[in-house]
# Entry
Amino acid sequence: MMQVLNGSLFVQMVLQGHASLEQNKDRVNALNVFPVPDGDTGTNMSLSMTSGVNELKRYINEPLHRAAEAVSTGLLMGARGNSGVILSQLFRGFAKGVAKKTEADVKTFADAFQNGVTTAYSAVVKPVEGTILTVSKDAAAAAQTAAKDKNATIQSVMEAVLNEAERSLERTPELLPVLRQAGVVDSGGQGLVYIYKGWLAAIKGESVSVDTSAVGAAPAKVLTPAAAHGDGETEYGYCTEFIIRLPEASDDEKATEVAVRDALMPLGDSLLVVAADDIVKIHIHALAPGNVLNKAQEFGELTRIKIDNMTEQHHDLQSMDSGAVAAAESEGPKKPYAIVTVTVGVGLTEVFKSLGAEGIIEGGQTMNPSTEDIVNSVKALHAEHVFILPNNSNIIMAAEQAKTVLGDTVTVIPTKTIPQGIAAAISFDAAAALEENVESMSGGISRVKSGQITQAVRDSNFQDLEISEGDFMGMQEGKVVTLGKELDLTAVSLLEKMIDDESEVVTVFYGEDVTAEQAAKLLEEAQNQFDHCEFELHYGGQPLYSYIFSVE
# Structure
């Protein structure tokens, strides 16, 4: 029986873990407790793993610590949704647990699981039990116990991890009432169990069909000029990517990132620096890439060098509107501020643009952008400081992770809904100081009530409500507050719960499944019933949600 974990076995574990998750992602999606067509945990976790796997495939024959850092780095940048971010932190902690090691014995293997749990919990502001966090914690504890057996092997520890993960998963409804009411287990925890099943299969030498070619993850659409290549000077220059291998692993990855960033910043733009163990991943746009490489070589050996001539790629910009091209070709000093927002729907996109948002990431409930999508959008803007508006509670963690990559030039305003994002954008003042804008934009969130109407896709018991497939659900701040069989009646019922005597302005955004005539009819009914409020009607074009309401 195997007593140590080496790089080759770890690679197979990750590949098979990803394959197991990919094959079962629809089952994970189906565990969504909310009866609307936005169960995306399985998709988010699978796409996040895809990014990790694609990075790992460049380190197939490397020692354990380098393979672990590779998948960790890939997951960090590719993380989507809360589940993907937590998964990336589990892998990041695991990688730190095997740092500097070409192979791991049983105790180190078990400790790496625990290190992953510690890292993941520290990344979550308010950890909730009964989720993937609990499943990972219980599984790591089982690893610690199993490793103490004098006859313990890598396989026996992994068997203990999987067995306890499955038991912990079954207990999640006992910890989260919303799971118990819906009659399901936690979706993120289920995704982790599928990954662990793949790990055990690899350790046991069981065959799982895995395609070793690069897996194509579908990135969120970033509607910014030359999003993949930053702001692009008139000369365009070269998109330069490479990895620095440090002489030894860094004890302070943040300090390493700062040192490398300070050294390379004068040599180009759109600089991205990510340190992990003894490697530092670099992305920069420079007119003289040779100077960049020479400077970077002062820190260590350079590998994986890739240089693209962006002048040759300039024709890609011609498909953009003239305003976007002008912004992409702009030289001169950086503007003080810019706003990046996440939204979906033609109408909502135009609303955010009209409020000054230059970076529009197309995404939302069913397609959460990755950390890298957000990083790229920020990098595409020629600004000293960028405000990020996630507009969805499942995107905030990825936005915060993007901030850790980009540094203090970014502020995440934790908007959880489209109305909150619009309120924050309205509160922005280009002439104000940074601290004033943070305060006013954050304050804008609390001054608006958010509501939306969607339709149940299955029967469910949610928040003590018996919901039937096809029911229209009125939600306020994410909670179902009214149900109905007819769209307009449900919408008016929701407005009755949102509007009070102090309400002044109600904005209605109608979705892609609602006609202008239907929306106008609802508006007339609402104006007659709530005649003390001023109403505004806009085409949002959003999918899934027939109406989004903002009440101020």
